[in-house]
Amino acid sequence: MLESVLASFASISLAELLLIAAMALFASIVGGVAGYGTGALMPLVLVPVLGPEPVVPIIAISALFNNTWRALAFRRLIDWRRGMLVAAFATPTCILSAYGYTHLTGKGAAIVIGTMLMLTVPLRYLFKRYVMALDSKGLALGAVIYGGAVGGTVGAGVILLSILMAAGLQGAAVIATDAVISIVVTAVRMAVFGFSGVIDARVIAFALLIGAVALPGAFVAKAMVARMSLNVHTALLDLVVLIGGAMMIYGALIG
Hints:
Blueprint (H helix, E strand, L loop, with lengths): L1 H9 L3 H21 L3 H4 L1 H8 L4 H19 L6 H20 L7 H23 L6 H15 L6 H10 L5 H25 L4 H26 L3 H25 L1
Helix pairs in contact: 1-11, 2-11, 5-10, 5-11, 6-8, 6-10, 7-9, 7-12, 8-9, 9-10, 9-12
């Protein structure tokens, strides 16, 4: 296995390897600050270098490392009750979508999801104004939708970010709880992908690379968040949601 992993690195140029590592570090910092970004940024370099087929399992496995580092960095701010609720309701739909990910076209779904994501920002402010928020039932429903999106796609973390914020979490608590949920969902995806035989030496090699580079990024992000006011951090999270939704729509339209 070790020889196969090393051969996977040898199959691409040093410049491409450094590009993937640099993007992994950048995406880790963005993800640690915004709670989202790794799944949307890494395909920008992975697809041109490796092709589209291994991207979802690579990001799924590397996410286990990314979110573990992030959970450790923000461990005191985790909302365990909401986190476990979302993880429980996201798991069944995650299993179904992960199993069928190779058959997904996703163009129409990406447009619908992207549009809804962009609407979550103004809707959240309306909910806040009229003292409305997601209760446990609403959070569970959002988790089912998130699980269906995250199992077979990349970049679905912005959905999780949106529902956690709508449920009342703010600032670094969003990042911490997001990380714990993502660890559970990632473990489920890895099990499904392993059972389906889509995890090979190349997938493991690049997932390990991305995961290792992400370690310092998580703690750089923690230091950055500690220096931000709650209003600035919330505004940044809203901006990320809007950009993420727009990127999903754009990718679907040009795909």
